[in-house]
Amino acid sequence: MTSTLFITGATSGFGEACARRFARDGWALVLTGRREARLQALAEELSAYTEVHPLVLDVRDRQAMEQAIAGLPEKFTRLRGLINNAGLALGTDPAPRCSLDDWEVMVDTNIKGLLYSTRLLLPRLIAYGRGAGIVNLGSVAGHWPYPGSHVYGATKAFVRQFSLNLRNDLVGTGVRVTDLEPGLCESEFSLVRFGGDRERYEVTYAGAEPIQPEDIA
């Protein structure tokens, strides 16, 4: 029987790389993303390898998540894996000068969005039993502070502790939980953080050897 994987934030970075990797391995995919054109293009491409169900939504929207998951087509309902990838960092200003709106978006996406997908999909993963798993995308920023990390680093510290606590709650269910914590990675993530400033993006990776999304996948 085909294994089915649910990936949030699949239109770029780690999420997109994971979708490509698991599609090649024959997993059926449920992919979420806010950018409809990108999501549909990816789903069409990967349909050459496997069955794909795209969901255009924002993980911050609890009602949309509830409706989308409740309405999954029958062939995608027996879930084996969840990759909680949707997340972002916004801004690099120190806390006294940063945008409170940016803080709120990071909390709503990196924490609440992850909570929504996890809680709503846990019954399906537990029903699958041994061999099912959750992969949460954390960050080294959850361990190590640096100027301008403030809320972003704090949200990733939450991801780490939530993953550890979740493991305890799932003992005996057969569902495993992993928190991946990448360091510097060359992806659209930094471009978003810098508000689309391509020059700052290029400077960030100049002389460095960052990992690539495919390495994480």
Give an overview of the whole structure.
Helix 4 packs parallel to helix 5. Strands 3-2-1-4-5-6 form a six-stranded parallel sheet, with helices on both faces. The model has no long low-confidence stretch (mean pLDDT 90). The chain has eight helices and six strands. Helix 4 links the parallel strand 4 and strand 5.
Percent of residues in helices: 40-55%
Shape: globular
Q: Report the structural category.
A: alpha/beta
Instruction: Write down the secondary-structure element order.
Output: EHEHEHEHEHEHHH
Summarize this structure as a short list of keywords or feature phrases:
alpha/beta, six-stranded parallel β-sheet, 217 residues, 6 strands, globular
In short:
The protein has helices spanning 13-24, 36-46, 62-70, 100-128, 150-169, 188-193, 198-205, 213-216; strands spanning 4-7, 28-33, 52-56, 81-84, 132-137, 175-180.
Secondary-structure blueprint:
Elements (H helix, E strand, L loop, with lengths): L3 E4 L5 H12 L3 E6 L2 H11 L5 E5 L5 H9 L10 E4 L15 H29 L3 E6 L12 H20 L5 E6 L7 H6 L4 H8 L7 H4 L1
Parallel strand pairs: 1-2, 1-4, 2-3, 4-5, 5-6
